[in-house]
From TrEMBL:
Keyword Isomerase applies: no
Keywords for the protein's UniProt record, in alphabetical order: Lyase
GO molecular function: 4-alpha-hydroxytetrahydrobiopterin dehydratase activity
EC class (word): lyase
Protein name per UniProt: Putative pterin-4-alpha-carbinolamine dehydratase
Family assignment from sequence similarity: Belongs to the pterin-4-alpha-carbinolamine dehydratase family.
Gene3D superfamilies (alphabetical): 2,3-Dihydroxybiphenyl 1,2-Dioxygenase, domain 1 (3.10.180.10), Transcriptional coactivator/pterin dehydratase (3.30.1360.20)
Domain Glyoxalase-like, first and last residues per copy: 107-210
InterPro entries in UniProt: Glyas_Bleomycin-R_OHBP_Dase, Glyoxalase_6, PCD_sf, Pterin_deHydtase
Source taxonomy: Bacteria, Bacillati, Actinomycetota, Actinomycetes, Micrococcales
Domain of life: Bacteria
């Protein structure tokens, strides 16, 4: 299936879901662990029937669901269809969705020489120096956040090389930025908003609040 654009995903009416960096995310609050397990089992049966399988995380009293089509490199119609099915199961079982609380962290590292440093970080984080795909270092076993390498010019003057990309729902970004500013931060660059906004703490350490909009 063809990969959908961010706009197409947002127009799909998936009220229980939010598109973050690489996938559709949903959080469902169950009444207890047994209810969560019952919900996961029902989702698993639906996934088998659709021959399309989400990532499921069961904790007490939450179930997190993540959907993407790896063969297409993003979100496709089958993800949208399965998301609707999962939401239907949640309604039938009386499980409430909490879409505004989902979030995702990615690490970004400036480098002028990916070939020189990439294998080191891949080996350190995953144990496999070859675990690099383009500009991304992704752990296939899902143990660590995605690290991506941001190409930059060579430089000798000290400056921040690492920063966090904090992916939040598009309808949460403004309040998250406001909360960070109220807590002592500053907006460094909003020129690419709402795609991403660069913030800094009181000592100048930077991070980006990212959304799926205008991507």
């Amino acid at each position: 299936m063809d990969k959908l654009t961010s706009a197409q995903v947002l127009e799909s009416g998936l009220d229980d879901w939010r598109l973050l960096a690489q996938a559709l995310h949903a959080r469902f609050r169950t009444k207890d662990f047994a209810s969560g397990l019952r919900f996961v089992n029902a989702v698993g049966e639906a996934a088998e029937a659709a021959n399309h399988h989400p990532d499921l995380t069961l904790t007490y009293p939450l179930v997190d669901v993540k959907l993407s089509s790896h063969d297409a490199g993003g979100i496709t119609q089958r993800d949208v269809d399965l998301a609707r099915t999962v939401s239907g199961i949640a309604r039938e079982q009386g499980v409430a969705a909490e879409p505004r609380v989902v979030a995702e962290i990615e690490l970004a590292l400036d480098t002028a020489d990916l070939a020189a440093i990439g294998p080191f970080w891949a080996a350190l984080l995953t144990g496999d120096a070859g675990a690099i795909d383009g500009d991304d270092l992704a752990d296939p076993n899902g143990r660590v956040p995605l690290l991506w390498f941001q190409h930059t010019d060579a430089h000798e003057a000290p400056r921040q090389r690492f920063h966090l990309d904090v992916w939040v729902p598009h309808d949460v970004a403004e309040e998250r930025i406001a909360a960070a500013v109220a807590a002592g931060g500053t907006v460094v660059d909003a020129g690419q908003a709402p795609s991403f906004t660069v913030l800094a703490d009181a000592e100048g350490n930077r991070a980006c609040v990212c959304t799926c909009l205008e991507r």
